Amino acid sequence: MNITSYVPVVVRYAIVSMMAAMFTHGWLSPEHNAILTQNLDIIVSAIVGLLTVAYALVKRPSAKAMEAAKEIDRQIPAMHDVVIKTPGSAPDIVVMAAEKK
């Protein structure tokens, strides 16, 4: 099960719960609540987009890894496939050769 596919649903429920709490405590008027409810899809999309960008910035490959990949890429001829053996029963990673032009 991949939890990342549920992020929009989790964000939606979190926002709705937060809006309900704010409404019941009197921090949101009925008009504000109606406007937020009408625009909930836009709000969720914006938050999920920001979370995706934040995750990409945190989890991006290091500069050291990128330099190593560039050096390895220079050493492998463009006409050869590359097979990366993975441990156990996981399928091997295959990078197909560039097409000849």
In whole angstroms, the N-to-C terminal distance is 41 Å
Residue runs with pLDDT of under 50 for 5 or more positions? none
SSE order, one letter for each helix or strand: HHHHEE
Taken from the alpha-carbon principal axes, the silhouette is elongated
In angstroms, what is the radius of gyration?
Answer: 23 Å
| SS-based class | mainly alpha
Strand content: 5-15%
Question: What is the overall number of helices?
Answer: 4
Order of strands across the biggest sheet? 1-2
The largest β sheet comes out as: 2 strands, antiparallel
What is the strand tally?
2
Mean pLDDT: 86
Helicity range? 55-70%
Structure description:
- This protein is mostly helical and 101 residues long.
- 59% of the residues lie in helices and 6% in strands.
- The chain contains four helices and two strands; from the N terminus they run ααααββ.
- It has helices at residues 7-24, 30-38, 40-59, 63-75, and strands spanning 82-84, 93-95.
- The chain has a two-stranded antiparallel ribbon.
- Helix 1 (7-24) packs across helix 3 (40-59).
- It is elongated, with a radius of gyration of 23 Å.
